[in-house]
Design brief:
Layout lengths: L36 H10 L2 H5 L18 H18 L4 H10 L8 H11 L8 H12 L13 H7 L5 H10 L6 H5 L5 H25 L4 H4 L3 H13 L9 H30 L4 H5 L9 H19 L2 H23 L6 H4 L4 H10 L3 H12 L7
The structure holds magnesium ion.
Amino acid sequence: MALSAGVNLSALAPWASDPRRTRGRRLHEPLAPPRNEHQRDRDRIVHSTAFRRLVYKTQVFINHEGDLFRTRLTHSLEVAQLGRSAARALNLNEDLVEAIALAHDLGHTPFGHAGQDALQACMQDHGGFEHNLQSLRVVDRLEARYAAFDGLNLCFETREGILKHCSRTNAALLLAAEPDGPAQRFLDGTQPSLEAQLANQADGLAYNAHDIDDGVRSGLITVEQLGEVPLFAQWRDAALAEHPSLAERPGRRLLFETLRRMLSAQLEDLVVTSAAALAEQRPADADAVRRLPPLVRFSAVQHARQTELKRFLFTGLYRHPSVTQSTALARTVVAELFAAYRARAAEMPADYAQAADLPRAVADYIAGMTDRFALREHHRLTGRRLFDA
Ligand code: MG
């Protein structure tokens, strides 16, 4: 094990992304031993301003609704933890999975999907707004920490994982600026690295479980209702069989015992199914992976069960009147902020106020805000308070 490698790279599977064979950074930089290039990307992400803001950004619930709900930061940490567990079991590159997981939501607006929808509507005639693209924009351009370049100058593989979705129109625009960049796969239909595929699966795994937890905590859904969802019922029954006393006082411990089993079983399913797919396909190297179908996946049975759970969460939680009521207010906050800054650019910091493309600068400025800063700014600029914080 070479000291400069930082981790035991000889344990990597032949199809894993090897930091010694990275496609590199857009601007060349000397190596930084003892860290390898993907550890270094992870560190740049953790030290970024956008990463610290995730602590005050909504996942499903608006940040001030309660201190115990997930935020984008705790969500990202859970994604990283699940992704690393699977990466280690599959001999994939843990550092790369961690870097992608920690960065995957950096472009999220305040107020979760409500904020994203509102900003998308505001930007409709100005090139649109898409949170995956914005995450890439944060690490490529908006972070201002280096003397020699904008952004964090991350490796191709990290940027490829961050750009999880992209429309063909946006892909074409990105490619015009960067031929062979991470947008290429959206035009030629290829896959990203196994580590990117894994971070993506860990994302879904994490939010299915923690949205149940937050949903029950908020009182909007109940453990009894969740009993209709086979994936949940299976592991609730297993928890009750092992701890019959939980039936007498079903509460948070029953919920946690259920979620723990559910997550663990899904993680195992993901590792076993992916290992079998890899053993069957035996890609020659990390590049061969990109020309194959997705190989990091759940079994068909597990996938079907997750779909049922997602459907339940969609109607029972994400579309719950109490959630949609606060998201409607959040949309108003974002739309009114957008109008206010366009009319009075000088209300923004100089870097944004003097940008050549004002609508894009306004979108960048708003997208970077935490929930509470957006509410403060909205009150300052309109004199109205839409939430009692
Ligand atoms: Mg996510």
